[in-house]
Amino acid sequence: MAKKAKIKSAKGKLGVLLPGMGSVATTFIAGVIAVRKGISQPIGSYTQMGRIRLGKRTDARSPKIKEFVPLTNLNDIVFGGWDVYKDNVYKAAVHAKVLDKSLLDQVKDELKLIKPMKAVFDKNYVKRLDGTHVKKAKTKMDLAKALMEDIKKFKKTNGCSRLVMVWCGSTEIYIEEAACHKNIKALEKGMRENDENIPPSMLYAYAAIKMGVPYANGAPNLSADVPALVQLAKKNGVPIGGKDFKTGQTLMKTILTPGFKARSLGINGWFSTNILGNRDGAVLDDPDNFKTKEVSKLGVIEQILKPKENPELYGNIYHKVRINYYPPRGDNKEGWDNIDITGWLGYPMQIKVDFLCRDSILAAPIVLDLALLLDLASRSNLSGIQEWLGFFFKSPQTKKGLPPQHDLFKQLMKINNTLRYLKGEELITHLGMDYYY
Fold it and tell me: Cβ distance 209 to 229 under 8 Å?
């Protein structure tokens, strides 16, 4: 058996801080409280429902993840966050129209007590969103310091032993890496000078990392995916991860594409379109914000298929992604895909997928898993980019120069082997005798 990592106890309260307390965050909070009260099951959560195989298949050891690694108990989680609207979580959840009001009313008392702090917000980065519950300050550095005060106060007021932060806010406009992102000194100078290349999500990431709080980015924003914040995370011993929760259409792509490649089936084209209402749909209706999401979505199948390595099968693939704002649909997004494939002797075939999904229902368990696993990473003395958490993201953050891994099944193997490593169990590689047993 391999040597175990030294993992600190999960004893005490874990504060989960959420920038953006809209449909995803309120669905997550209400869901965890419902699970704690025995009203519902945490379906879709890797940490709560998933199992992990240990040793040989003949050993018949497959405990649940939450029984295998020392995760924070759901009863020990405290919720907080920021939003541009001052509605308490119950009112925000009713407005989001994701969960049935009959369910929300069963957790109403707990939800009404959770009220968002004033958000750091700039309409230049999310043009289709308005809000009055917003912090005011002269510089972006002042705003970051205000967030750090919020974090400090929340931890003390709620008696938390540890904190994590998971971005659940909107997609910001497309921003590329700039000079102010190169190192910590340049970033802090840019914050003092209100550099336009530093969006609100980056201020939240900076504040979290400065305060030693693990940070995950659930949107395709640049956020913590810049050299300066990676350096700061390593310096402060803070685990970080991102970007963009892997939910509906992209989840299906990372399931289907590895299968096509495994069977050496050719792909000529993949057309994807979405219709989505709610706040997220409204934000993405702006071309500048859609560009950020488009870049996140487009890289998935290309990385898995590697057209340059497989030109006969994928050299001429045409990949198109569209998102259409359709208010009547609300949070119940529809992702429609047309896939033109080729088989033996080049004969054409088609596959059509119509995924009538619920975006926040798919995202909420990801928020839970990231919060618990980032806390585990912190207690295991892991810092910097946590590539093993790429399982949960559309556009996994990686170390500079390394391509992300998008194949869901390879991502699952990586996350499971990381947990085995932390607990001193043998890694499963399907080589040697383990292949037979």
Answer: yes
